[in-house]
Write a structure and sequence with these properties.
100 residues; mainly beta; OB fold (Dihydrolipoamide Acetyltransferase, E2P); five-stranded mixed β-barrel; two-stranded antiparallel sheet; 7 strands
């Protein structure tokens, strides 16, 4: 899994029928120190994440299983909204501190 920040949404009126009703999010990847990386990814949202929230992203066959259909053409799925991240004795991210 990878940590990412939700940067936006992706809207597509023409898509594979298996993706109808699936919310797509534009994510910016985050490194182990909490720094935003230059990499972006589009992922299906299975948890109702919103803009600026930090999330966990699952990839590959695990992403397809999250949404209950291994036949969907998905490479990534948002599987959790992050509340906090601690690395060793450091607080890298806290959702409640973000909105103060």
């Amino acid at each position: 899994m990878q940590v990412a920040k939700v940067r936006g949404t992706v809207v597509s009126t023409q898509k594979d029928p298996s993706l109808r009703g699936t919310k797509l999010l534009l994510l910016q990847l985050v490194d182990e120190d909490g720094n935003l990386q230059p990499n972006y990814e589009v992922a299906a949202d299975s948890v109702g994440a919103g803009i600026d929230e930090w999330v966990l992203v699952s990839r590959g066959s695990a992403a397809r299983q999250v949404l209950g259909n291994e036949q969907r053409p998905l490479d990534a799925a948002v599987v959790a909204i992050i509340d906090t991240i601690h690395v060793e004795d450091r607080l890298i991210y806290s959702k409640k501190d973000q909105y103060r």
